[in-house]
Structure formats: structure tokens, C-alpha cells
Design a protein that fits this description.
- The structure is a single chain.
- This protein has 61 residues and is an all-alpha fold.
- The longest helix has 14 residues.
- The relative contact order is 0.06.
């Protein structure tokens, strides 16, 4: 095998992907989008943490 031990270049992958059937390309892209999830919005977590009370804190009226 010629490429054994050598990383596959991005261009090689692009050329391989272009060679796939158009419907299969769409399927692959859809699967990647489905599996890749965006990280949670850190601002929401910060607000939740800021508004969370500690045990023994006075309760707001």
C-alpha cells in the first residue's frame, strides 16, 4: 500500500467525495449534520448559575 503511514490530504478526500453519486453525497452531508451537535449556549448556563441560590440563602419575596 503506497499511502501507509502517510496522512490523507484534504484534496484527496474532496476528490473522493466528488466521485460519489450526488444522492449519496447528500445522504452523507445530512448524516454529518445530524450527528454534529452545536455546543450549548454558554450564556444560558451562566445566567442559570447566577440566578441559582445557595443552600441557606434568603428567599426573595
Amino acid at each position: 500500500m503506497e499511502n501507509q503511514g502517510k496522512p490523507i490530504s484534504e484534496n484527496a478526500f474532496v476528490e473522493f467525495f466528488k466521485g460519489l453519486d450526488e444522492n449519496y453525497q447528500r445522504y452523507c452531508i445530512d448524516e454529518i449534520k445530524r450527528k454534529v451537535k452545536k455546543p450549548p449556549d454558554s450564556r444560558l448556563n451562566t445566567k442559570q448559575a447566577d440566578s441559582a441560590g445557595m443552600v441557606g440563602d434568603p428567599v426573595s419575596p
